[in-house]
Amino acid sequence: MTDYIRKRRTLHLPITLSVALLTLNVTLMVCWIVILARQYYWSALAVGTVAFSLMIVGIAIYLVLTIKEVRLNQRQANFVDSVTHELKSPIASLKLYLETLSMREMEEDKRHHFYGVMEDELDRLDRLINQLLEVGRLDAIGHETEEERILLDDLLKECANSAATHQKVNADDVFTYEMASLRIQSRRLFLEMIFRNLMDNAIKYGGDPPAVHVSLFHNNKNQIVVRIQDHGDGISTEQQGKVFQIFYRGGNELERRTKGTGLGLYIVRTLVYLLKGKITIESGEGQQGTVFEVQLPGRLLK
Hints:
Layout: H1 2-9, H2 12-38, H3 42-103, H4 108-136, H5 138-144, E1 148-151, H6 152-166, H7 171-174, E2 175-179, E3 183-186, H8 188-204, E4 212-218, E5 224-230, H9 237-240, H10 264-274, E6 278-283, E7 290-296, E8 299-301
Parallel strand pairs: 2-4
Antiparallel strand pairs: 1-3, 3-8, 4-5, 5-7, 6-7
Helix pairs in contact: 2-3, 3-4, 6-8, 8-10
């Protein structure tokens, strides 16, 4: 808790210092203008005013860049906290089950249950490591994968089933579909990573019990549009501009209940842009849940 308070305070110093410098510069500039205007030193007045103005602009830019840097450091600290928790939790669970299995004999069905839990924890570790690796090689993936013909509605259902398995829910109970049968020329790996992350998030934040509706259609701008709507609490307008930032997760890691690292939506946005597409969020007052809309320029095939 002490570290968290310290991270919050680091933002106060640059803001206080910048405001003080701005106030001092404005005061000096006003005094400069008054003194020189009374003595009719118009050339010196013009030069001094420009110099003071440039100083004020420089301080303002410094303040903005410093705030961005401090906030990035805070997101990185949150990321480290979340990854540490995500790594330690399955490792502790695996250690406990292995110790239990080695210390005493147990019934066959119970032993198989333990093996199943251990396998789930290993899968969880594997997914986390893969996600961390994906972030480090997003640019390289773009050069390694080739375009192919893809039946998009089938791919979306595969992603939904994969996300449901990950979240340990029944896909038939969670997902409903309203999809045209569309084939596109695109990169399969990109699409799988995009929609698996979005559907995983939709289940995670889609209410209790979760409910997710997936739409697929072709719009009048010659774009393929995928809409994924959950029925959760929604995303505030303030957070909508932040959720795609790397490491961003709202709130304090110590108080968070949902698992994650703050990388999923960053990966989604990066891959959508690499496909020359667009992703938007619809959420807020008068609307239940959140809609992520992905617009893809992929070539439509028959």
